[in-house]
Design goal:
Radius of gyration: 20 Å
Shape: elongated
CATH architecture of the largest domain: 3-Layer(aba) Sandwich
Order of helices and strands: EHEHEHEEHEHEHEEEHEH
CATH topology of the largest domain: Alpha/beta knot
Number of helices: 8
Number of strands: 11
CATH superfamily of the largest domain: SPOUT methyltransferase, trefoil knot domain
CATH class of the largest domain: Alpha Beta
Length: 264
C-alpha cells in the first residue's frame, strides 16, 4: 500500500467488506483478495462483483499479505482499503419503526471493540432506533468493531456525544424515560429496581449500558428513573455474578423491544 493509504484504513471479512462497498458511507479505494482457489468462492466473488460495479481496483495478494493488513485477524480472504467511519455528531431525526415507541441505546465508555461490535450487531438485528456512545474513553469505530459486528457497523449509524448527561436531560425534558442497569446481586439503590421481564416500554425510552468493569457512572445513574436487572438462573459464585456487557445488552434489548407498545 502506498503513501496515499494513510488516509484510509483496512476493513476485513466478507460481510464488512460487502457492506462497506454497498452502503455508501465509506470511500473505497482498493480491494485485496487472496490469490488461489479461495478467490473463487461465491462469497468472495460477490465482494469482487460489488467492487467491480463501483470501479474499485481489485488486487490479488498472498494470504501472508492479508494477514499483515488485518493484523492477524480472520479476514476470510478479503481486505478493503477504505475511508474510516466515525461517530455521527450531527443530530438527525431518526424515525422509529412505524408505529413503535422509540427506544435508544446509550453506551458509556465501552472500550473493548469486540464488545462494541457484538452490541451493534444485536442492536441492529433487534431493531433499536438509535445507538449513542460517549466519545470520551470509548473505543473508536474501527475495522475490528466492524468485523465483530458482522458488518452491522457499516449499516447502523452510531452517534457520539461529548456530554451524555446533557443529552439525557434534554430527552427527559421531552418526556422520555431513562432506564439503567444493575447486576443480579441487586446492589443497594434509591432508584427502583425492576426485573427486565417485568418492565414494559410504554413511552419513549433510553436504555443506558455502562462500560466494562465499572458500569455506569454516578452522574448517569442519578438520572435513571428505573434500574433493570437480569435474574440469574442459579446461585452464583463471587466474581462471576454478572454478564458481559454485550450479552447483557442483547438480553435487555430483546426484553424491552418485545414489550414496547405501538406509539399513539
Amino acid at each position: 500500500m502506498d503513501s496515499k493509504a494513510e488516509k484510509y484504513e483496512v476493513v476485513f471479512g466478507i460481510a464488512p467488506c460487502v457492506l462497506a462497498l454497498t452502503q455508501g458511507r465509506r470511500k473505497p479505494r482498493k480491494l485485496f483478495v487472496k490469490d488461489g482457489e479461495a478467490s473463487h468462492r461465491a462469497s468472495v466473488l460477490n465482494v469482487c462483483e460489488e467492487a467491480h460495479r463501483r470501479g474499485v481496483q481489485i488486487q490479488r495478494v498472498s494470504k501472508n499479505d492479508l494477514d499483515k493488513m488485518s493484523s492477524g485477524r480472520v479476514h476470510q480472504g478479503v481486505c478493503l482499503q477504505a475511508s474510516p467511519l466515525g461517530y455521527l455528531t450531527e443530530d438527525r431525526d431518526s424515525k422509529p419503526n412505524a408505529g413503535d415507541t422509540p427506544l435508544w441505546l446509550v453506551l458509556e465508555k465501552i472500550q473493548d471493540p469486540m464488545n462494541l461490535g457484538a452490541i451493534l450487531r444485536s442492536a441492529y438485528f433487534l431493531g433499536v432506533d438509535r445507538v449513542v456512545s460517549s466519545l470520551h474513553d470509548s473505543c473508536p469505530l474501527s475495522p475490528v468493531v466492524s468485523k465483530a459486528s458482522s458488518g452491522a457497523m457499516e449499516v447502523i449509524g452510531v452517534y457520539g456525544y461529548e456530554n451524555l448527561e446533557d443529552m439525557l436531560k434534554m430527552k427527559m425534558a421531552q418526556g422520555w424515560q431513562v432506564v439503567g442497569t444493575v447486576g443480579a446481586e441487586g446492589e443497594e439503590s434509591q432508584v427502583p429496581i425492576t426485573l427486565c421481564s417485568d418492565f414494559k416500554v410504554t413511552k419513549p425510552t433510553v436504555l443506558l449500558m455502562g462500560g466494562e468493569g465499572e458500569g455506569l457512572s454516578q452522574q448517569l445513574l442519578s438520572l435513571c428513573q428505573t434500574l433493570l436487572t437480569i435474574p440469574a438462573g442459579r446461585e452464583l459464585f463471587r466474581g462471576i455474578e454478572s454478564l458481559n456487557v454485550s450479552v447483557a445488552s442483547g438480553i435487555l434489548l430483546y426484553s424491552l423491544l418485545s414489550s414496547r407498545r405501538p406509539a399513539r
